[in-house]
Amino acid sequence: MNPAQDQPPPTGMFSNNDYFSWNVRFTFIACGFFFYLSVFLVTHFLSLYFSATYLLLNAREKVFWILAATRAVFGVQSLGAGLYTLLVDPVLSADIATAQQDWSWFNILIAAGFFLFENVALHISNMTFRTFDIPLAVHHFFAFMGFASVVLCDTTGHYLAMITLLMEMSTPFTCISWMLLKVRRAGNYQTE
């Protein structure tokens, strides 16, 4: 009796993909990259239209403003995925060394795309503004390499990678806090 044969085939929005195919992997990493690039661009245009504070920022702060909003979106996604892994999913926590789920593949590939986007944005920003933040560059490099290693070593369990996403839990709050501080400093904040 084989327990794997006794289980029904997986169903759901994540189970229609062959995550062991490199074409599927590269497609989802590219989707993650372009999704967060889209968030970046949409944030820029919405900020141009709706935020007086954004218009007052210098170019470097505008880029950080947009990246902060983009990171906040990734932080919310990471929080949801990490909490689901920690509190709900029984498969990944039962075998932290080798267990994988279709939904965890999806999240890991999207996270790899996000960290690729972060590295590209960081280095373009560094070249544009002639700066180089070594700790941030090292952080982004290791974040990307960590998720890339899970993609490359396809027998590795996803539990630790998914729990690692919980480290992004504070990101939405710190990013929104920074944006609100900029609003207050610009004098566009009304208190009664």
Detailed description of the structure:
The chain is an all-alpha fold and 192 residues long. 73% of the residues lie in helices and 0% in strands. The protein contains nine helices and no strands. The protein has helices at residues 3-6, 22-50, 52-56, 59-87, 90-94, 102-129, 134-152, 159-164, 171-185. It is elongated. It starts with a helix and ends in a 7-residue tail after the last helix.
Topology readout:
Blueprint lengths: L2 H4 L15 H29 L1 H5 L2 H29 L2 H5 L7 H28 L4 H19 L6 H6 L6 H15 L7
Short précis:
With 192 residues, the chain is an all-alpha fold.
Please supply descriptive tags for the structure shown above:
192 residues, 0% strand, disordered N terminus, mainly alpha, 9 helices, elongated
Rg of Cα set: 19 Å
Mean pLDDT level: 89
Which structural class is indicated by helix and strand composition?
A: mainly alpha
**Percentage beta strand:** under 5%
Q: Report how far the terminal alpha carbons are from each other.
A: 70 Å
Q: List the secondary-structure elements in sequence, H or E.
A: HHHHHHHHH
Low-confidence stretches: 1-8
Number of strands: 0
